[in-house]
Design a protein that fits this description.
Chain A: This is Cytochrome d ubiquinol oxidase subunit II. Chain A: Pfam families: Cyt_bd_oxida_II (PF02322). The complex is a heterodimer of chains A (about 325) and B (about 475). Chain A has helices at about 5-35, 40-50, 55-75, 75-85, 85-105, 110-140, 160-185, 190-215, 215-220, 225-230, 235-255, 255-280, 290-295, 295-315, 315-325, 330, and strands spanning about 280-285, 290. With about 325 residues, chain A is mainly α. In chain A, strands 1-2 form a two-stranded antiparallel sheet. In chain A, helix 1 (about 5-35) crosses helix 12, helix 1 (about 5-35) crosses helix 14 and helix 5 (about 85-105) packs antiparallel against helix 6. The mean pLDDT of chain A is about 95. Chain B has one domain (about 20-445). The two termini of chain B are about 40 Å apart. In chain B, about 50% of the residues are buried. Residues about 460-475 of chain B have low confidence and may be disordered. Chains A and B meet through helix 2, helix 3, helix 4, helix 5 and helix 6 of A and helix 3, helix 4, helix 16 and helix 17 of B.
Chain lengths: ~325, ~475
Amino acid sequence: MSLEVAVAAALFVGVVAYAVLGGADFGSGFFDLTAGSSRRGAELRTLVDHSIGPVWEANHVWLIYVLVIWWTGFPESFAAAMSTLVLPLLFALLGIVLRGASFAFRKYAETLGQARLFGVVFATSSVLTPFFLGTVAGGIASGRVPLDGTGDRWASWVNPTSLFGGVIAVGTCAFLAGVFLVAEAARRGQNRLADELRVRALLVGVVTGVVVFAALVPIADDAPTLSDGLAGRAAPLVVLAAVAGLATLALLWRRSYGAARLTAVTAVASVVSGWGIGQYPWLLVDEVRIADAAGATATLQGLLVAVGLAVVVVVPPLAYLFRLTQSEEWSRH
Amino acid sequence: MLTPAVLTEVVVQLSGAAEPAGLLPARQQMALSLGWHIVLACFGVAFPAMIFVMHLRGIRRDDPVALGLAHRWAKVSAVLFAIGAVSGTVLSFEMGLLWPGLMGTYGDVLGLPFAFEGLAFFLEAIFLGIYLYGWGRIPPKRHVLMVLPMAVTGIVGAYCVLAVNAWMNDPTGFRIVGGEVTDVQPWAVLFNQQAFLQFAHMWVGAYMLTGFSVAGVYAVGMLRGRRDAHHRLGFMVPFVFASIAAVTQPFVGHVLGFGLDERQPAKLAAFELAETTESPSPLRLGGVLVDGEVKGAIDIPVLGSLIAMNSPDEPVPGLDTIPEEDHPPVNLAHLAFQAMVGIGTLLAAGVVWFWFQRRRGRDLLERRWFLRSAAVAGPLAVVALEAGWIATEVGRQPWIVYGVMRTPEAVGDYTASLWWLLGVSTVVYAGMTVGAVVVLRSMARRWRAGEVDLPSPYAPEVSTDKTSTDKAEAGR
């Protein structure tokens, strides 16, 4: 593996991690939004608070990781994508700001009225943010981001691939969140809530699965390079996504929630990796390849040092945090 | 500080016909988002150490007052760090969205420090989660240690960001051959010469801002007659941090400024409002430059040379030695710089007086004038920090990378419609400010009323409990 590809791989690991971990946090906003009236939805909203509260900031850092590795490792392509895709990025940014702030505000809100206001902002922005990030992915994957100059600031993200990308992002986030929330509710012994969430997670899973595979049709025309990749190099991932997705539905159906979390993560990670492997070796599809987009060699080496250090110093405490949140003591409150 | 004359000058200087339409809104956008975030970044850097000391005291001495304070501060930091995390994300986006010329050309030169900063932020977010949600769930002696990594990551993160800023002021670690950036040495950027001093200045500033702000909250409480152990301790711990920082800062700042005449002569000339080269240079308090004439300044002879040049007669090089097109907005840089120095000096003198009196057995906490001063010290420290950033950033103009890339070359390809972004951002930041103030004040109110856990109002146990529901309704 060349140095450039190693850094690109490290970058893409961040994309997958953000899609799965950050995605699950965003997806919980979908269930929060559709939880019903304050009284009816109180139990679910409290569950959302408890399950994403300790981890959302850590999961959010994956986005920063992706941005930093991108601009450091592949600066010109970063500047190009930022210039062309400014609108969906700004909308996503607005969503990120509103989501994080209103989530924290709601937790400590004094009155139900305040909590409702912050709650609506939190939930709506949680649903919208992944959509815009998905359109960004679609714009890059369909070759609409020129390396030189600024591309069309509307058509670059309002197009079939981007719109499907956006919907898929929202769907996969909600799917992950559904599975995680069901498992969490069941672990806490909130069986009525778990049953309710189980039905909705199944529904979200079916709809998302249909959209993911339906998207392959318009993508064939709209993003031929990606489409070829999906039919070729990335085909095993497409199959894996289908198998893991179906397995998740079956496990949810049988109420095997613990195992369903694993298959759900596998399914979503496969969908996202399918995009990445599908567009390899392009960084900006049809515009610049990974090998040609890379910055200075010394910097790429430095980045790998930083990534190696991250594996050593970040992963253990992250594992500790996740283990704590899954432990009995943390479920009692 | 922002007199109409200064504003007009800024607008005139920045909206010259040759400049891209997106430049001024992009700069204002960056100023707003950086200026807003920097306050929270200070809390992120300095608050964990104060919480740690308080928490440790609570455990070591079995002191319920200290434990209660640490618990409350942790909850406050949950709110502050959340909006700090998202407003920091805004900056990451804006680096690329607003300044693609900088990031596209120099991304691989300046990027490595950001990678390590990201690492520090990762650890901070992880330990924040562990610490905040660990109350009552992790054994106390282990739990208190979970806040310590945040104090360390605050140092690493601040260093890395300041390394990039120092690099922008004094670029190094690359060569330009035939218009192409080459021979990139990212480690030389990470450990560039000015990075440590700039970091030290900001790090100490963060402790001043946070320490004075937190102490000020309890000073207000004491002014309102709440003179209990809770308020005294809540004042004293952050005030000790702020005191050490405040008396250190003048020295750090002075050392940082040394050699500025060679690194960035235009910035120094602007700071000192030196239109011409005078030997020895006076210290010019206040004043503005109008049509090349200094107006309204109070000159103290020789002091300018002494402070800026460490010499009785060596002059501060004047603006007349620097080409017109390389002048920064002089008045804004000068006034912001002096506001920072003035407030810093005042705060340092204030804490020295407090501890001097205390040694003589006089407790100034009994004096209302001191408590009032302590209450405004927090906002003053915020102003000083903001002014310092305005001074150094505006003073670097018209360069984004000093001597190498001009700010107009870095800005993205935008029309004047970029002002809309500034408008929307102003509304969003104002909303976030109001939200934070409302929530933090309501938390304080409920704590005073004797509540401890502050459950969310939609929690099921509350909505089924008649009395609490009534209370929530009444509070609306």
